[in-house]
Amino acid sequence: MDKKILEIKNLKTYFFTDNGIVKAVDGVDIHVNEGETLGIVGESGSGKSVTSLSIMGLLNDTSGKVVDGKIEFQGRNLVDLKEEDMRKIRGNDIAMIFQEPMTSLNPVLRIGKQISEAIRLHLKYDKARAKEHTIEMLKLVGIPRAENIYSEFPFQLSGGMRQRVMIAMAMACNPKLLIADEPTTALDVTIQAQILDLMKKLKKDVGTAIMFVTHDLGVVAEMCDRVVVMYAGRVVERGDVYQIFENPKHPYTKGLLKSVPVLRQKVERLASIPGNVPSPKNMPKGCKFAPRCKNVFDKCWEEEPPFYNVEENHSSKCWLCE
Amino acid sequence: MAKPLLEVKNLKKYFPVKKGILNKKEKFVRAVDNVSFEIYNGETLGLVGESGCGKSTTGRMLLKLIEPTDGQIIFQGKDISKMTDDEIRPLRKDIQMIFQDPYASLNPRMTVGEIIAEPLIVHNMYKDSEEMKKRIHELLGMVGLSSYHSVRYPHEFSGGQRQRIGIARALAAKPKLIIADEPVSALDVSIQSQVLNLMQDLQRDLDLTYLFIAHDLSVVEHISDRVGVMYLGKIVEITDKDTLYDNPLHPYTQALLSAVPIPNPRIKKKRIILEGNIPSPLNPPRGCAFHTRCKHAKDICKKIAPEFKEVEDRHFTACHLY
Amino acid sequence: MSQRTVREVAKPNENEKMEDIRTPFSEFWRKFKKQKTAIVAALFICLFFITAIIGPYIVPYDVAEPDYDHILEGPSSKHWFGTDAYGRDIFSRVIVGARISLAVGLSSVLVGAILGSILGLISGYYGGWIDNVIMRIADVLFAFPGIILAIGIIAILGPGLYNVVFAVAIFSTPMFARIVRGSTLAIKETVYVEAAKSIGTKDKRIMFKHILPGTFSGIIVYFTMRIGTSILTASSLSFLGMGAQPPTPEWGAMLSSGRDYLGVASHITFFPGMAIFVTVLAFNLLGDGLRDALDPKIDN
């Protein structure tokens, strides 16, 4: 049995706005095993990013709040932790890389300083040792002239290099879990290839568990062991990467897979999922995908389906699987 | 051979950059450097490349949103590159543009009806306001929206719907050529396919010609008849779609294609990882612009820029290997 | 051209109802109604407007007719604000003065706003030497303290209310020009302006249809605050004897005429002074509230 490093149980994160409550994440169960890469796939509004922010406890600056559920990391429930305790975990045990590397690096601090401060804080290294470790990390993520880059500013680097710096910073304290939220979306294809390559290498060498949040199915197929598909604040299907890509059960997963053009797979016309993601104000009563589903029947409108196991470790939230 | 609808010859755009106050010597960013291609009636020419390769600048020059530094743009037999604003205005009806960001490209203070009416008003196409209204409703129907949407404001619509509004605006003046600058890259996966299908339907029904500018190779493959690949302001390879994707000649095209992640976990691609970053267009490398990252680079590549020539039947590339 | 294909795609959410149309105005109102101070200020300004319109018809006393039997009387039930050195009812004079102050404030700012907006629009849109000329003139006007500039203009044109309006308008213009130029520069670069150009829209239409409406929020905020300042400046000029001439019941002129009796009858200066103070404050508070409600960056 795989050992779970992170287990999210019935997570509900709501945003309280002037226009009412937005249920961004509404009853999500996800777990990450040690050493694996879990892909979280979903479109905008699916709640995938809010889920990762909830884990990191980074909702304080927003109107969002975890209203229910547990986030168990190594036996501790992160939801109950005080900000001070959370800060010790953040960057140390759980690290995160974001889509836009420029906004997550401090523009007025030298790169070396940003990384080594985290190292000194979490690993309690002295100044010299922290610097040594930082340069080692920069080399590990494939940054040439690491010693020079150490004393440069973020704006002096290209987008791909910045993302490498972010990864170096995230990996510096040997986190047990790395949350990567669309880490390659802002990058060019050839740079994306470099970064994916690097992340695979780090995973093999260091063995960190990765939670890979993305909308790009190609990246998921390439990087992940298991996949969780999210829609409208819920998980709709989960399974290993082969199950999801070769035997998808939920109509949303099926539609999503068919709607992307694939290189050298000549299709005259793409299948498409009609309609839009429901707005939080107009959530359908039963299954949230019902208005866009081509297999919809009466029960779907009435009641939200539970999870049904379709294979070992593969379940789908759809009445069709009953 | 039919006459091309649009012919671009040696198009150049050099943006001047002043270095400092004292340094009087002007430098130039060679955003587009000697680009030539044709677009034939009814086809879709895809233009791919990574950020900063000059593909958007090229598209904008065809509309004269950016004034070309040098070269010719021959549209329906007339060179429009040196025409004044007033001379070109009647021709603007025939070339329209779809923009990348469906949020920024619609004036937030105008209703959808007003936005779509703009080309009709500007080109004085309808004297009668009832008829114009009918036309607006017809256009909304063509892009899959309803007539009652015309009184609403853009911010009430989702990204995909906004892109439909942008398409309706581009269609309003019954253009012959539509320049689509990354029209789906800001959209969610399931919405992308809706918009791509819509564009294909419209092309068939209205006999449109597209210049489709994008960075996503799978999307470009799906929609295009011919594809040109740009790198650092130059077209490095151009040919029909199947030839390019099956038998790419230029090392950059090969690397680009190999970098695309495939949504199939069984396919373990052998990837050509390009080292380093795209050089700055302020100081492009001498000789072949790609030689700094090319594994086939020879001495000649560092000295002499390769000629853009027809290597196979209607398959053009600029590389010393051929 | 007909619709030959039936699109299988997206009819957008049909369940959206027409009622929840969100116009830019409803967005503004949603944010504005949370600004309690600004709403109070707005209500006061409404009252001020009503007073200005109907005031002269409802006042209990003639504002110009002297009554030598009741000079320098303090506030009483007959004369709520007391009487001045000629026995005229100060309450009536303050009420009637509202119309003058409002007319001067509003018209001078209006002239300044229209002039400034057009100049700012041209300056920002075309740039180059036009921009340089307009903005350097604005800089010169900025270099003078407003009141000195106004005194200078009146020294040339001679005293009188119309000249006050003109003087205040002149020194409101550069600020409007700057505000509009700033927004124009930003809006000029937006994709939707580029989109308009790609369609073939002419410069004039782009400037007035696409750019100008985008600068309105900045104009409205400054316009509101400026009315307060202009009323103050106009009153100051009248106080100095350069604007409204006695016996016109202008607040500044009233202050001026009450100056000599400050020791014996302070109410002569107190009430017009309060009127100026409260009015200017109300316009400023409303301006603050409008800014918060119109700024898209401020949204809770």
TrEMBL record, chain A:
Record membrane topology: Peripheral membrane protein
Name of protein: Peptide/nickel transport system ATP-binding protein
Family, as annotated: Belongs to the ABC transporter superfamily.
Record key words, sorted: ATP-binding, Cell membrane, Membrane, Nucleotide-binding, Transport
Source organism of this protein record: Paramaledivibacter caminithermalis (strain DSM 15212 / CIP 107654 / DViRD3)
One CC-aspect GO term: plasma membrane
PROSITE patterns, alphabetized: ABC_TRANSPORTER_1, ABC_TRANSPORTER_2
Subcellular location: Cell membrane
Automatic annotation (TrEMBL), chain B:
GO terms classed as biological process: peptide transport; transmembrane transport
InterPro entries: AAA+_ATPase (IPR003593), ABC_transp_ATP-bind (IPR050319), ABC_transporter-like_ATP-bd (IPR003439), ABC_transporter-like_CS (IPR017871), Oligopep_ABC_C (IPR013563), P-loop_NTPase (IPR027417)
The keyword Protein biosynthesis is annotated on this UniProt entry: no
Superkingdom, taxonomy of origin: Bacteria
Keywords: ATP-binding, Nucleotide-binding, Transport
GO molecular function, one term: ATP binding
Keyword Lipoprotein attached: no
Ranges where the ABC transporter domain occurs: 6-257
Family membership: Belongs to the ABC transporter superfamily.
Name the record gives this protein: Oligopeptide transport system ATP-binding protein
Organism from which the protein derives: Paramaledivibacter caminithermalis (strain DSM 15212 / CIP 107654 / DViRD3) (Clostridium caminithermale)
From TrEMBL, chain C:
Subcellular location: Cell membrane
GO MF, one annotated term: dipeptide transmembrane transporter activity
Membrane topology type: Multi-pass membrane protein
SUPFAM superfamilies: MetI-like
Transmembrane segments: 38-59, 100-126, 133-155, 161-180, 211-244, 264-287
Entries under Pfam families matching the protein: BPD_transp_1, OppC_N
Any one annotated GO CC term: plasma membrane
ABC transmembrane type-1 domain boundaries: 98-287
InterPro entries, sorted: BP-dependent_transpt_permease (IPR050366), MetI-like (IPR000515), MetI-like_sf (IPR035906), OppC_N (IPR025966)
Keyword list, A-Z: Cell membrane, Membrane, Transmembrane, Transmembrane helix, Transport
Database matches in PANTHER family: GLUTATHIONE TRANSPORT SYSTEM PERMEASE PROTEIN GSID (PTHR43386:SF3), OLIGOPEPTIDE TRANSPORT SYSTEM PERMEASE PROTEIN APPC (PTHR43386)
Family: Belongs to the binding-protein-dependent transport system permease family.
Main function: Part of the ABC transporter complex GsiABCD involved in glutathione import. Probably responsible for the translocation of the substrate across the membrane.
UniProt name for this protein: Glutathione transport system permease protein GsiD
Source organism per UniProt: Paramaledivibacter caminithermalis (strain DSM 15212 / CIP 107654 / DViRD3) (Clostridium caminithermale)
